[in-house]
Specification:
heterodimer; A: 8-stranded mixed sheet; 4-stranded antiparallel sheet; 12 strands; 29% helix; globular; B: 325 residues; Rossmann fold; 8-stranded mixed sheet; binds adenosine-5'-diphosphate; binds iron/sulfur cluster; binds magnesium ion
């Protein structure tokens, strides 16, 4: 199938959790995802970046229907995602798979990996049992493992080989969508490169659509066709990876880009003050305003909406859209 | 004269070698990076130097600090050196701090141990240190527990405790690996400021060449318990000469230019109990010749301050762009 064209669309996703503060505190509502819309195109990859706790992983689970949103909807091939647990849902789940950060945690240490790769085929009753071993062999080869390595247990493989095994299992049902949640963060640099190359090869071979969740902008550029930057449950900027990386428009994206340590970096680094915010304590107005170097008092009152600039780049920032002039940061009260 | 020199430092656990002869000197005021993949021996190098390895570790070679041999030195000497002349901070601040003690107490303990400071003098010095490492509202924070602070703030507290002994050398072992990128940037800036203002010597251990490039003048690349290349930072990025270093650089996704396929190094690191007979990188190396398996290549000088441990260095030293994909 030719790449392009929406395969999966998410609109206005909201996910709330109740979180207790301290030992005896009241439960407070935390909006982990607060109005996220995104689109996965056929055979293409959307990169989702942001710091820990910004809602990247929750967004991934909502997109796959592993969790239901409190508001908003996900549609796949134009149809709304069926109720979790229904037959239609189970059928759809076979076409959407998730890959996690920690391959050892994702695998069962008591079973050889070939058995685990065949598992989804049994669960979803795909193909004849007699074809199983040939199918598993093909999957092992597709991810760059030797068929004889299928007999190994997870602890007998290196970190990179385990992540390959996890990918082989995810690909067993021939999924149309793959959500990869920090798939390379736990791996060494040279192994990260192997896995990134593999993801690109698999996409070319199988036309899989991917959501690549990562905190690493360089990795996102390497594998993605579009990138969305998240901050505290919302997308604050979205566009072509090169455009976003070379000319970031949102002050938060600028800080992220400037924080990438690399030898060619010139000039003063933009260092943000303070810690990533607590979702239970969402600041008023633009959630980024307490850490933003160009915020002014308007930013503390009004939340900016994500909307396109003249060149099509999506940005949620009053200053970037020229609606207010750049201030010098607005702390209001001292951050605790 | 260097501040610290490691010569032939070797460590084995249960008969399996973890370090196989490390030669490295660190000059006063310098910032040296130590890079390499997990398990290559970066941490063990400095744990061995400071006498922090478990008893089962077999250690040989020499670590000399200002004329004083540390390997095999009596515990009393090592205790004075640790946290006094050399301080070490680790990747995970939360597990290095004592969860049941207020952070003020943990800093004043270090002040009592290394500078005989007690009472109000210690408390006000502790506050000054928290200010120095950029913790807002320091006098109130002295009474906080580690779990009340964020990961980035706890790492600042660890740095404050390290500074309590007024160390000449700070060994920072993956100090930003567990932190978010914007917080990593804060900690790297803090380390730079501290060096500028206190003239402190820094050894920065990291798996990330970018982090080291950002903060250090010189870098040593480790592979399977040995240093395989040592060079000034700019030279390493423009003229890496060891196939492993070239591989590491090729594996980094570029920030700009066309998106090329990454030059992933095939295979994985050898297990300590199954070290190749010659060059440990040989099984993964595209330049390997028969001689590479005959003996372990030593570090030889290639240019000023640039040393490489590779037999094929004349064939290998080539510009980075032409590293085969
Ligand atoms: N206490 C220990 N007991 C046994 N083996 C150890 C111990 N500490 C480290 N090692 C081994 O020594 C080698 C080097 O480890 P380390 O210095 O931690 O690597 P790095 O810091 O480069 O990731 C590894 O093979 C590791 O498993
Ligand atoms: S010594 Fe031989 S095997 Fe080792 S890095 Fe050099 S060329 Fe490769
Ligand atoms: Mg280590």
């Amino acid at each position: 199938m030719k790449p392009g064209g929406a395969l999966l669309e998410a609109e206005g996703l909201v996910r709330r959790y109740a979180m207790r503060r301290g030992f005896f505190g009241h439960a407070v509502e935390v909006r982990a995802v607060d109005g996220v819309s995104l689109k996965l195109e056929r055979g293409r990859t959307l990169g989702l970046v942001g710091e820990s706790g910004c809602g990247k992983s929750t967004t991934g689970r909502l997109v796959l229907g592993m969790e239901m949103p409190d508001a908003g909807r996900v549609s796949f091939e134009g149809a709304t995602m069926p109720q979790p647990g229904s037959t239609a849902w189970r059928k759809l789940r076979a076409r959407m798979q998730m890959v996690f950060q920690d391959p050892l945690g994702a695998l069962d240490r008591r079973l050889p990996i070939a058995t685990q790769i065949a598992e989804p085929l049994d669960i979803h009753a795909i193909g004849a049992a007699s074809d199983r071993s040939a199918r598993v062999e093909a999957l092992l080869r597709a991810v760059g493992l030797r068929p004889d390595q299928g007999a190994r247990y997870p602890h007998e493989l290196s970190g990179g080989q385990r992540q390959r095994a996890v990918l082989a299992r995810a690909l067993a049902t021939d999924p149309a969508v793959l959500v990869c949640d920090e798939p390379i963060s736990a791996l060494d640099v040279s192994i990260q490169a192997q896995v990134m190359n593999l993801l690109l090869d698999l996409q070319e071979q199988f036309g899989t659509s991917m959501l690549f969740v990562s905190h690493d902008l360089r990795a996102v550029r390497q594998v993605s066709h579009r990138v969305a930057v998240m901050y505290l449950g919302r997308i604050v900027e979205e566009g072509e990876p090169d455009a976003v990386l070379h000319d970031p428009a949102h002050p938060y994206t600028r800080a992220l880009v400037s924080a990438i340590p690399h030898p060619g970096r010139t000039g003063q680094r933009m260092v943000l003050q303070g810690d990533p915010p607590n979702p239970a304590d969402r600041p008023s107005g633009c959630a980024f305003h307490p850490r933003c170097p160009v915020a002014n008092s308007f930013c503390a009152r009004e939340a900016p909406v994500l909307k396109p600039r003249a060149d099509g780049r999506l940005i949620a920032c009053h200053v970037a859209h020229g609606e207010v002039t750049a201030g010098h940061g607005f702390t209001g009260q001292e951050a605790a | 004269m260097p501040l610290v020199s490691l010569t032939g430092l070797s460590v084995a656990f249960d008969g399996a070698p973890a370090l196989r002869g490390i030669d490295l000197s660190v000059a006063k005021g310098e910032a040296v990076g130590l890079v390499g993949e997990s398990g290559c021996g970066k941490s063990v190098t400095w744990l061995a130097a400071l006498g922090l390895l478990p008893n089962k570790a077999r250690i040989s070679g020499s670590v000399v600090l200002d004329g004083q041999e540390l390997i095999g030195a009596p515990p009393a000497i090592l205790e004075k050196v640790r946290g006094g002349r050399i301080a070490m901070i680790f990747q995970d601040p939360a597990s290095s701090l004592n969860p049941v003690h207020r952070i003020g107490k943990q800093i004043t303990e270090a002040l009592a141990l290394h500078r005989n400071m007690v009472g109000q003098a210690a408390r006000s010095e502790a506050k000054r240190l928290l200010d120095l490492v950029g913790i807002p509202d320091a006098s109130r924070r002295l009474d906080a527990y580690p779990h009340e602070l964020s990961g980035g703030q706890n790492q600042r507290v660890m740095i404050a405790i390290a500074l309590a002994g007024q160390p000449e050398l700070l060994v920072a072992d993956e100090p930003t690996t567990a932190l978010d990128v914007t917080i990593q940037a804060q900690i790297l800036e803090l380390l730079k400021d501290l060096r500028r203002h206190m003239g402190m010597t820094l050894v920065l251990i990291s798996h990330d060449l970018g982090v080291v490039a950002d903060s250090c003048e010189r870098v040593a690349v480790m592979y399977a318990g040995r240093i395989v290349e040592e060079a000034p930072i700019s030279r390493l990025f423009s003229a890496a000469a060891h196939p492993y270093t070239q591989g590491l650089l090729g594996a980094l996704p570029p920030m700009d230019g066309p998106r090329r396929r990454l030059a992933a190094i095939p295979g994985g690191v050898p297990e300590p109990w199954a070290m190749p007979p010659g060059c440990a990188f040989a099984p993964r190396c595209a330049h390997r010749v028969a001689a590479c398996d005959a003996g372990v290549p030593g570090l030889i000088p290639l240019a000023a301050s640039h040393r490489v441990a590779c037999l094929q260095v004349a064939q290998v030293a080539m510009p980075r762009e032409s590293v085969p994909a």
